[in-house]
Amino acid sequence: MKLKNLGAAAFAAASVASAMAQSSGEGPWLLRLRATQLDMANKTTASAAALDLNVNNKTIAEVDVSYFFNRNFAAELMLTVPQQQTVQAGATPLGTFKHLPLTLLAQYHFTDFSGFKPYLGAGINYTKITGVNLDGGVSLNPLALDSHSWGGALQAGVDIPLDRNWSLNFDVKKIYLRTDVYSQGVNVGTLKLDPVAASIGLGYRF
C-alpha cells in the first residue's frame, strides 16, 4: 500500500510539474545538440609533479536532455560517447585512454529578461575510464589510472530563443575529473584534469 501511495504521489507531482511548465506555453522537455571544447587543467599533486603528465584538449559532440519542473527549475543530463585522449609526460608520448563522462545538473533559469534566458547550474559528474594504454615509452614504467571518477560540476549559460521551439545556446561548465596514477601498482599521485567545457549549440523545446 505504501508503495502504491508513493507511486501515486510521484505521478501526481510529475503531472503538476508538467502542467505548470506547459501553462507558460512551453513544453517541459528541452533537447540540445552542442559542440563542446574540453580544456584540461592538467594539474598534479606534488608526488606526481615529476611525471609532468598532460592530457590533450579536445572538441567533442554532446547531447543534453533537460526537464523543466516549472518555469525556473530544471534538471539537465549531459550525454556523449566514449572519448579517446592522448597522454604525454612532458613532450614524451605515453599512450591513450578513453573516458565516458555523464553529468547531471540542477538548474535555475532566469525568466525576467527580454530576448535571452540565462541560467546557473550545479551537479555531479561520473566519468568511466577505460582502454588505458600508457606503456611509458622507453624510460618509464607503464602507468595505470583509476577506472572511474566522481566529482562536482558547475554551470552557467544562456538560451537565445529563435522561435517558439528553437533556441541558440551558449554554455560553460567546470567539471571536476580526477584520477590517481599508478606505476607497477603503486599510487604515485593524482592527475587533476578538471576540464572547462565551453559549448555552443541548438536547443528544441517540446
Short description:
The chain is about 10% helix and about 60% strand.
Structure description:
- The chain contains one helix and 14 strands, in the order H-E-E-E-E-E-E-E-E-E-E-E-E-E-E.
- It has a single domain, classed as Beta Barrel (Porin), CATH 2.40.160.
- With 206 residues, the chain is mostly beta strands.
- Strands 1-4-5-7-8-10-11-14 form an eight-stranded antiparallel beta barrel. A four-stranded antiparallel beta sheet has the order 2-13-12-9, with no helix packed on it.
- The longest helix has 22 residues.
- The chain starts with a helix and ends with a strand.
- Strand 6 and strand 7 form a beta hairpin.
Average pLDDT level: 87
Number of domains: 1
Major sheet strand order: 1-4-5-7-8-10-11-14
Task: Give the biggest sheet.
Answer: 8 strands, antiparallel, barrel
Strand content: over 45%
Distance between the termini: 35 Å
CATH class group: Mainly Beta
List keywords for this structure.
206 residues, mainly beta, Porin, eight-stranded antiparallel barrel, four-stranded antiparallel beta sheet, 62% strand, disordered N terminus
Please give the structural blueprint.
Elements lengths: L1 H22 L5 E11 L3 E2 L8 E3 L2 E11 L4 E7 L3 E7 L2 E18 L7 E18 L8 E3 L2 E14 L4 E10 L2 E6 L2 E7 L3 E10 L1
Antiparallel strand pairs: 1-4, 1-14, 2-13, 3-6, 4-5, 5-7, 6-7, 7-8, 8-10, 9-12, 10-11, 11-14, 12-13
